[in-house]
Specification:
Blueprint (H helix, E strand, L loop, with lengths): L5 H27 L1 H6 L11 E8 L2 E8 L13 E6 L3 E8 L4 E3 L7 E4 L5 E4 L8 E4 L3 E3 L11 E4 L7
Parallel strand pairs: 1-4
Antiparallel strand pairs: 1-2, 3-4, 3-6, 5-10, 6-9, 7-8, 7-10
């Protein structure tokens, strides 16, 4: 039985990171655009408003899961995650995030509502990578009808140390 060399493990880990990043980009695109979802290979892709995508990190790997669901509500946001919906009052497409300590690109749809069930504060930013205007969401808070620039937020940062805004 052959055992991989330490350098082989690093190469394998690097490949896993690239694959995980590609999966995240593909899953986000599939959730945001029904035409992209159909192009990914499913001619019977569920309507966008019935898709929930969860993005999280485990042992350095980004995990993306997508599932078809019925009518969405605030109770669909999992504990420990920051969630955004494409429509007000926690309806439409739901995307859940748990990637603490990094700027997370948000889907291209307008944010209609959000809930921060992550144990620390989450900050929404106007631009990708944390630039422009920002709005802070303390833990266990939600906004059923996002308005103004926040509806077009393009990145999210889940703090690793601070809970208050």
């Amino acid at each position: 039985m052959e055992h991989p060399s330490p350098s082989g493990m690093r190469t394998s880990a690097a490949r896993c990171a690239v694959v995980a990043a590609a999966a995240l980009a593909l899953a986000t695109a599939a959730v945001v655009s029904p035409s992209v979802a159909a192009a990914v290979g499913s001619s019977t892709a569920p309507p966008v408003e019935r898709v929930v995508t969860t993005t999280s990190q485990s042992d350095g790997a980004i995990l993306v899961t997508t599932a078809e669901v019925g009518t969405l509500s605030i109770s669909d946001c999992r504990s420990g995650y920051t969630c955004v919906w494409s429509s007000p009052f926690y309806a439409g497409t739901l995307v859940q995030y748990r990637l603490p300590g990094q700027y997370i690109p948000l889907p291209s749809f307008s944010i209609g509502s959000y809930a921060n069930l992550y144990e620390k504060r989450a900050t929404f930013y106007e631009t990708v990578g944390g630039g422009g205007h920002s709005t802070c969401a303390p833990p266990a808070t939600s906004n059923p009808a996002v308005s103004g620039w926040s509806s077009a937020a393009r990145s999210l940062y889940q703090n690793t140390t601070t809970t208050s805004c």
